[in-house]
Structure formats: structure tokens, C-alpha cells
Amino acid sequence: MLEAPPLGLYVHLPWCVKKCPYCDFNSYEVPAGEFPGERYVAALLRDLERDLPLAAGRSVETVFFGGGTPSLFDPADIAALLQGVRERLPLANGAEITLEANPGTVERGDFSGYREAGITRVSLGAQSFAAEQLRLLGRIHAAADTGAAVADLGRAGLANFNLDLMYALPAQTLDLAVADLATAIGLSPPHLSYYHLTLEPGTAFYRKPPVLPDEELALAIEATATERLTAAGYRRYEVSAWATPGAECRHNVNYWRFGDYLGLGAGAHGKLTVPDEDRIVRTLKPRNPATYLATRDDPVQGLRTDVDRHDRPFEFMLNALRLSDGFRHAEFAARTGLPLASVGAVVDDLLGRGLLEEDGGRLRASPLGWRFLNDVQAAFLVSSPTSGT
User: Could you report the per-residue pLDDT of 235-280, keeping only the tens digit for each?
Assistant: First the structure.
């Protein structure tokens, strides 16, 4: 039977100073004229009003401001939004509230102001510390800006922060990648997101691909990163996420455990569980910011679709198998409303092939399975759950 999982809140703030050529997120360069911060906050709260019935009686455990570049918003806008959320939904004591920010001062407000507004965690988009790689990635901050931003975070009392770092970049060598890692580790971030650059459809890089490191070099960079980060006291708890003990991103862990989240903002996705009706509802908001803002006094509209029971195992595995610890058997049943036996044949096959491993009532991808994670996840796409309780 379905159970209501923890509830998060994702807020999409879609504007950037400059669109990066590798980015496939729903983001737009800042519109000419007055920045629409207050208008957008008002639209976000109308958006929340429409989704409130799907979250009735529940408290928000985590909040994540993503984008775009959320740090383009004034701290007063962030404070007003969080106050509006509190007036409509309980915000749990000790809630993790993350703001994505870019390191350059032109792309962010004062970190002290964000902390006073309620932000408890910041995610900095460093991507690289090499000037040439930053140029090739289309980033507008300088290599030294990230260190300066980390120092500003310390002065603001925001000790819980993440650095986003990418590898397999245009013209990147193993030595350059190792130098990036060394600089990142030297800044002592409690959390490090380490992403392989991929060419996503719809991006400038996809239309005109740069020359990237070959697979052999990319694997060598990843292997070296694993050694260096492990030696520095970080644990790889998710495919692209490393953390010191206790600094895992609670908001993202909730995603990967197939938890629930309200999605507010232009193009934002949400997922809400309605146990009494045996429903898992996906929400999607209007993608274009101008359309989103044009709702004025009417509730923000969007799409709502139910996740078919047939699709629930794949959607669960698409997330949970990204975690190094995998998931408990009971967690699968609680989050999908189906017994694990409904996909037992697929699980047995993957166990037999050494792609999954079982330990103490938990299932997780094996080291081999993590190398071929897309194939492991896809195995559940073609499976059809059998009936059972």
C-alpha cells in the first residue's frame, strides 16, 4: 500500500545573465527592463495555492531554489517567498533550504542577506577552476571568484555548501582535471557534485559539438577522482554526489528515494502521492516565464498526470539505484504501492548477472551495475508488474 513519503519543495527561478552552451535546463537570459522578482514571487505563491490540496496536512522538510541562477533574486524576494510558504504550509524545524548561486558577484546578492532570509545551504556553480575551461564552457565568472565566494559564505555563517564541478570538458587533460579536484578539495566543501559533461539535445554544444576527451580519458579522470575524494574524506553516496559525513543533500536524497515534492515556477516538475486514492500525481507548470507570469490573479495552470502502476517500478528504480546504499525492500512497497515480488523476475536476473547485489534486506547496484546503470534501470522499463499484495 502506498505511503506518503517526505515532502520537499522545488522552486524554479529561470533567469541567467548568460545561457551556457551546455545547459539544457529551462533557463533564459535576464529580460530587458526591470527584473520581475516581486511579480514572479507573487506568481509562485499563486502556483502553490493551486497545489495545496495535493499536500494537505503535510509539512515541507526541504526547499531547493534552482534555475537558472536563483542568486539573481534579491534576498528580500527569497524572504518574501519563504514567508508566503510558511503561511500556507508548515515548514519543518531544521528544514534544509538550498539556494543555487554562481560565484561571480554580478550573479549573486549578499550571502548574509540570503542567510537572514532563511537559506541554510548554498550550491555554487564552480564547474572548473581553469580559465580556459571556463571560457570554453561559456561561464562568465573567473577562476578566482569561486574561492572568493566560499570566503563570503564563511563570513555569512553559511558553512553548509556544495561545489558543482564538471569533468571531461573541452580540451581537458587528466592533469587539468586533477588540478580542478585539488583546488575544490582545498576549499573544504562539505558536499561536492562531480558531473561528467554530456551533450544534451537542444543545447549549443549539441548543435556544434566541441572536441571532448575520449571515453578512456573520461574513465581515467573518474577513477582518479574516486581515489582523491575518498582519500580526502568524502563518500560517494550517489552517482554524481560526494559528501563528508552528514552533509548529504537531503533534498536530492528525497528525490532519489522516490519522495514527494511540490514543483513551483516556470517549467517546474512536481510529484505528489495520494495514498487514500492509490495515486502518484506528476505536475508540470507552464514552461515559458512570460506565460507563467501572465496568470495575474488566476491560479497558475499546468499539467497533472497520474503515474500508471505499470510505470512505478521503473520510475522508482530510475532514482533509487543512483544511491550507493540502494533501497530497503519495504521502501519499494511503500513508495510504489507494489510488492517487490512484482518485479522479482527482473531482480533475480540482475542479481544473477552481478548487476545488483543484496545485503540485509537492501538492494543496490553493484560496482559493475553502476558502470552500466542505464541498462540496469532500463530492465525495469520493459517489465510488467504482476498483481499481488
Answer: 999 999 999 999 999 999 999 999 999 999 999 999 999 999 999 9
C-alpha cell at 239: 552517482
Multiple choice CATH, 309-389, 3.40.50.1370, 1.10.10.10, 3.30.70.260, 3.40.640.10: 1.10.10.10
* CA 338 – CA 354 distance, rounded (Å): 24
Q: Residue 134, CB half-sphere, CA atoms under 13 Å: how many?
A: 20
C-alpha torsion sign, points 140, 144, 146, 149: negative
Distance of alpha carbon 269 from alpha carbon 188, whole angstroms: 32
Tell me the torsion sign for CA atoms 127, 130, 133, 137.
positive
Look-up: residue for cell 559493475? 368
Give yes or no for residue 44 having a pLDDT over 60. yes
Residue 383 pLDDT greater than 60, yes or no: no
> What gap in Å lies between CA 102 and CA 16, rounded to an integer?
10
CB neighbours of residue 351 within 10 Å: 15
- DSSP H or E segment with residue 44: helix 37-51
